[in-house]
Amino acid sequence: MLQAHSTRHAPEHTAVLLNANAKQVSTRVRDALSGLVPAESLFFSRDRDEAHHIADAVVSRGFRTVFTGGGDGTFVSWVNHILDRAETHSAPTPRFGVLALGTGNAVAEMVGAGRPMDDLRRHLSGEVLPGRRLDLVTCEGRRTPFAGVGIDAAALNDYHWLRNRLGRKAGRLTSGLRGYGLAIALRTVPRQLLQRAPAYCEIVNTGTAAWRLDAAGERVGRAIGTGELLYAGPCMMAAGSTVPYYGFKLRAFPFAGRRAGMLQVRVATRIPVPSLVLHARQIFSGEFQHPGLLDFEADQVEMNFDRPVPFQVGGDAEGHREQVTLGIARRSVELLDYSEGARGIPLAPAA
Question: How far is the CA of 72 from the CAs of 67, 105, 247, 350, in angstroms?
């Protein structure tokens, strides 16, 4: 186990990257950050082109640590920008810190992020553990902690629909976990109840050996070889992740991250909607078990559906797909871990 550093981290070696359009990036937040890091280390992006230029600056100036402020979508965006630039220029990859300033904070929850300014101060004073390794999932040319299709993506679509339609009028009722639950109750659940049958899905192992996991997350049965089916049948949800959480402290992938270089693939085949509602607490804690809930671990899978199904990447709704490929990215990243008793995992040198 790695020990916490006691030396201070020079502010000029730390960059803070924020989405200037994000609601939580307020004037108060900007002023607080300006008091912690130099102006030349504080970046705000307003669009994709500006994010590209910022990523170039971060890599060329050799920042050792990069904090991203926002939710999972912001983290995914910045990680992709910076890793792309680092690979293009054969430069080292900085380690990442997460400032919980978004709605969906799966990565922040995994590393025990709390008050953003306090977490940044802890790093600058040297109190934070060196870090932990995070494998990333590749999907459609992007790196992300998780991605999936089915009811989870449908719920995200419904949440965004609700916020777009009622956000300003309903205020807090449509934000955060409250809004997410309302969207599920008003749109996602009724649609599932009226749906005649889930989509048919075939999931093929396109990587090295994959395994079925039991209720404790242990491998069972024989290895599933390349080209073999992990699953074929009705599918309410199929998703892959390297982090345990989905945001809102929903422990959707309780076995993710147990083995380096593997992602947890979770498939909900046919589970009655009333059962999902009645067991909401167990679903959030990751303790829910049902014959229609299947778990696997693999390093690459291809999913094919008989019709377009809702699709999400890193908690952002991305329309509908009939085919999705998920795999482990070539490069992992290092995350600062704020949680007590965190286990630091040293990284191999970047390829």
Answer: 13, 5, 8, 23
Q: Backbone phi, then psi, for 107, in 5-degree steps?
A: -70, -40
Can you tell me the distance from the alpha carbon of 156 to that of 252, in angstroms, rounded to the nearest whole number?
Answer: 14
Query: CA 226, CA 246: separation in Å to the nearest integer?
Result: 28
- N- to C-terminal Cα separation, the chain: 24
Task: Look at residue 175 and tell me if it is in a domain.
Answer: no
Provide the pLDDT confidence category of residue 255 given band limits of 50, 70 and 90. very high
Domain extent, residue 80, equals 11-135+332-337
| Angle, CA 236 vertex, CA 253 and CA 312 arms, to 5° | 60
Model pLDDT, residue 226: 98
What token pair was written down for 58? 């971060």
CB atoms within 10 A of CB 129: 22
Q: Which tens digit of pLDDT belongs to each residue from 35-93?
A: 999 999 999 998 888 999 999 999 999 999 999 998 888 999 999 999 999 999 999 99
